Structure formats: C-alpha cells, structure tokens
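4.2 Preliminary Data

To establish feasibility before requesting continued support, the project team ran the inverse folding procedure on a target of 113 residues. The structure was first converted into the token representation described in Section 3, and no sequence information of any kind was made available to the design step. The complete token record follows.
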C-alpha cells in the first residue's frame, strides 16, 4: 500500500506523507513542516485508514515541530492500542523538544542524519 498526501500551506514547504504497509507494519515518511490541525488530521486519517497495525515507524525528514494532536494520537496508539511506535527525526530541535516532554522512550525516538 502506498499513499501520498500533500497538505496545502502557503509560504512553507507543505507536509507530505508517504505510507508503506507490510503486513501489520506501517512506515510513514513525512517531509515538509508539520503545522496545525489540517496536517494533524491528515496524518491521523492516513494512519487510521491502514486498519489494524502492530508497528508504526515514522520518519520525520524536515519538520522542527510536531503538533500536540499528533503527540496525543501516538500516545494513544502506543499505550491503549499497543502499537510499537518508532520515531526517527532529523531535526535536533524536535529531538530536544521530545526529550523535554519525556517522550524519547515512549516513542523510541532516534536522531538520524
């Protein structure tokens, strides 16, 4: 399964999501800046449309931020739905934010090149 979902945001690179599904595992590659409710809802909808999953690997290529809606959604997936969340990010500022929120362990966060 492959899904490409662009977001419409003026002035900044739009958020785009590419999803790949292998069995009950989903890989979500996000490029552009994650910003606002529109991006949050598109992210949630894309993941929910994958159906039942046991592992969600997310690669955030460019964004320096993440919305509280997405954080809450991932928390729910991890704690209630028992989905293993793996979050790989390239921006040190986002990594530091997730560290301040004590989410590095919960989301298995890694800083990538």
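Position-by-position output of the design step:
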């Amino acid at each position: 399964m492959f899904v490409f979902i662009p977001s419409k945001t003026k002035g900044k690179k739009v958020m785009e999501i590419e999803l790949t599904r292998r069995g009950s595992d989903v890989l979500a590659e996000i490029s552009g800046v994650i910003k606002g409710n529109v991006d949050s809802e598109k992210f949630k909808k894309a993941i929910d449309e994958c159906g039942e999953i046991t592992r969600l690997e997310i690669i955030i290529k460019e964004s320096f931020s993440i919305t509280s809606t997405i954080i809450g959604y991932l928390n729910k997936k991890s704690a209630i739905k028992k989905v293993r969340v793996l979050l790989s990010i390239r921006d040190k500022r986002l990594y530091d934010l997730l560290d301040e929120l004590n989410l590095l362990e919960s989301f298995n966060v890694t800083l990538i090149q």
